[in-house]
Amino acid sequence: MQIKEIIESSKRHWETALPHLSIDCVVFGFDQQQLNVLLLKLKDNAENWILPGGYVLKKEALDDAARRILKERSGADKIFLNAFNVFGDLNRSEGYFTEYDDDLWHKQRFVTIGYYALVDHESVTPVIDASSEDCRWMPIDELPEMVMDHKSIIENALATLREQIRYKPIGYNLLPEEFTMPELQRLYEAVLGYKLNRGNFYRRIMRYNILKKLDKERKGGAHKSPILYSFDKDNYQKALNEFSW
Amino acid sequence: MQIKEIIESSKRHWETALPHLSIDCVVFGFDQQQLNVLLLKLKDNAENWILPGGYVLKKEALDDAARRILKERSGADKIFLNAFNVFGDLNRSEGYFTEYDDDLWHKQRFVTIGYYALVDHESVTPVIDASSEDCRWMPIDELPEMVMDHKSIIENALATLREQIRYKPIGYNLLPEEFTMPELQRLYEAVLGYKLNRGNFYRRIMRYNILKKLDKERKGGAHKSPILYSFDKDNYQKALNEFSW
DNA sequence: TCAAAAGTGTTGAATGTACACCCATGT
DNA sequence: ACATGGGTGTACATTCAACACTTTTGA
Questions:
Q1: With the C-alpha atoms ordered B41, B9, A61, A51, is the resulting torsion angle positive or negative?
Q2: Is B61's CB within 8 Å of A19's CB?
């Protein structure tokens, strides 16, 4: 980002957004192989990547802000969003923009709200916004160097996701509308980081009664066409609200 | 609180604290019978109670702010503190202070960080601070009318606590240094809201290896003197960090 | 002597884990 | 034919829940 652009956006932010408060989104996506996180690279920051983040408008609910930021900065839409933690240490954003004037928006002390989002990898086309040079999926086990405390924010989000998957269904937002049993299992394995037994996984999922078996199969693969499933939205929602699985 | 006092504190806050950001603490305490929450009643608000809350100083870490606020407003010290959620809806603090000027600190739109705290009931003497008329423990199942969304913040905190107790040890901060097995069990029952089987509870707790049996008993009771225990701090900490119980 | 506390035993149900079998089917 | 997927059976271990028995001990 050019200096001029930074100054411009600084003025705009002071007018429209709540100061000292930011939102950072950890966007998880699944590409049938591994779990990925959506990261940006800023124009002025040659080496380090950042989380898609932004600010809360003065008349905007926090959750709406997270949704908007995600849409603007990455193109991701209609997603599962959840505030998972707050990062408010003093030194977390120190040492950045030191060469600028003190009234620069970005030089403030920020308390950031960490949101994690689950999106369907297929339905998201990473959008490179005005201030970014790159926007892409990165596998969670090969994260690049990141700015500030962003790497630990991701780790914190992943830990939260792994806890949640133990007692809440996950998948509705990470998979396409229709998917196969092996795909769902690979998703669980990617999140948890270890292999699951196929038969047991099948029974466990079926027991929760959140799947609808469709009357079609995925054609074109090398072997037997796997049956397609979709989530039963009502039961899925019920399972989300109970904390019993 | 008198109008003059409000205006005074408003000026002070604008100078020292981060705007638009507040902290509310849900302080749980256990009195050997039931689970309580520490609540304040403001001088100017005849009927409604509020959570002990406050603001984040410009050069103060979020967690430190929560600790300070708790100390100042309730006298509670050395406690277990944990940010459990953020409340950032637009209408959550609307409709208050409408009769005041717009530059009144308290009339801002606030995003509040919810902290929950676990304290030893014995070691806390509720302190009535300058702006409060009352400060006292209230049982969680008989909460009074509360201001804004404070009641739902408490419910959210309790739900978090009930989830945590399933896989993390709880008690170190809610009980005195030395306690008996029935006391610990009553705490668990108070948090969960239902009775537990004594023998099974005993074995479960012992299995986690977080208790030290002391060589003394609690004298003076009507019947057999129960054995005193204390927590093994190292193992307790280890159990806190694993998420496996 | 009575009631509470401490500790242990037992039993059946439920759940989790590992493995294996059978069938279907697309190339 | 063969590799993959779908579905089920089974056997073992672990865990949980309910209950009961014993011993200790303070007033």
A1: negative
A2: no
B93-136 pLDDT tens trace = 767 777 888 889 988 999 999 999 998 887 788 888 777 788 99
Query: In terms of residue numbers, what domain contains B184?
Result: 179-241
In a domain, A122, yes or no: yes
Rounded to an integer, what distance in angstroms lies between the CA atom of residue B135 and that of residue A144?
50
* Three-point CA angle B44, B84, B116, nearest 5°: 55
Whether residue A168 is contained in a domain is answered as no
Residues A217, A139 within the same domain = no
How many C-beta atoms lie closer than 10 Å to residue A228's C-beta? 19
Pick from B127, B149, B171: which residue ends a domain? B149
Q: What is the pLDDT along chain A (245 residues), one digit of tens a residue?
A: 567 778 888 999 999 999 999 999 999 999 888 999 999 988 776 678 999 999 999 999 999 999 999 988 888 777 789 999 999 999 887 667 777 888 889 889 999 999 999 988 877 888 887 777 888 999 999 999 998 899 999 999 999 998 888 878 888 888 888 999 999 999 999 999 999 999 999 999 998 889 999 988 887 777 888 999 999 999 888 888 775 55
Which residues are within 7 Å of strand C by their Cβ atom? Answer: A 197-200, 204, 217, 219-225; B 180-182, 198-200, 202-203, 213, 221-224, 226-227
Tell me the nearest-neighbour CA distance from A113 into chain B, angstroms: 8
Dist CA A69 CA A228 (whole Å):
33
The encoded tokens of residue B36 equal 């309580």
Chain position carrying tokens 């003197």: B225
Cβ atoms of B56 and B23 within 8 Å: the answer is yes
* Nearest-by-Cβ selection for B83 from A62, A86, A90: A86
| Nearest-angstrom CA–CA distance, B31 and B124 | 11
List of residues 6+ apart from B98 with CB closer than 8 A: B107
Residue B8, helix vs strand vs coil: helix
Distance CA(B76)–CA(B121), nearest Å, equals 9
CA-to-CA distance for A49 and A142, rounded, in angstroms? 13
